[in-house]
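Hi, here's the filled form for the chain we discussed.

Project: internal
Contact: R.S.
Residues: 274
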Amino acid sequence: MTGIGRWVAQVKAHHAQSIAAQCDFDPGQDFWRALAHKFRDDPYRLNDPLLVRLREEFVGCDSLLDIGGGAGRLALPLALNREKVTVVDSSESMLNQLREASVESGINNVEAIQSLWERLSFDISVHDGSLCSHVIYGIEDIETFARNINRFTADLVIVLAFMRSPQAHLEVLWELIHGEKRINLPGVPELMEVLWEMGMIPELSILETLGPHIYESKTEALNDLRKRMYVNEGTGKDENLNSLLEFHLTPVEGGLELVGSAGRTMCLVRWKPN
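And the returned structure, exactly as it came back:
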């Protein structure tokens, strides 16, 4: 099987497993509706190492595409020193947050377009640079997704992603609760293989290795993990999760550490479109 074929099969299997674990799956729901407000940040913030790096990378790019840019956590500050930023995202609630934040911050050179990137239904212009931050993991049609990036980018593409998919550290809990081995989404090694197979020459940089996930309380951890592992409150699986957290949460300064959540490696993958 090719690298692209392995990617597609892995994403399909992950999605099928996730759907099977849900009692009330709705394919039309906006997954981010209740969470979108959490993805906003101050566009004028200082000393953000990631923003510093991105500004260095995109020097000379007067226009940027932010693919899956959501509420504009990166798009809005990056728009401060360039002519135009276009955010393409499939979530209406995320883009509503982006529009509100644009008005509140007085940044008027950011355009919001609602669409799946791999099924782009709008005719957009070619931009100097493209950014895709923590989006690629669950993209089934990764080949079309990557080709569309190249199609609308003139100079530089940057993808931010974890070495392993963001929720891979929950695989132990998943197996204990659902009684089956978790099929994780692909990460950076699989992405590199796809890009090489498509004739691109990606460069990989390690940005940082994150510490453990800290929750303020067991209640916060329980509510968060219910969503991530599709556990409905009041069910037998919920009771099991509640019991397991007695052993999977460790008291530390600032709250409770989720055991096994440390060591997530964030990467920057860059390439010139061909």
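Let me know if anything looks off before we file it.
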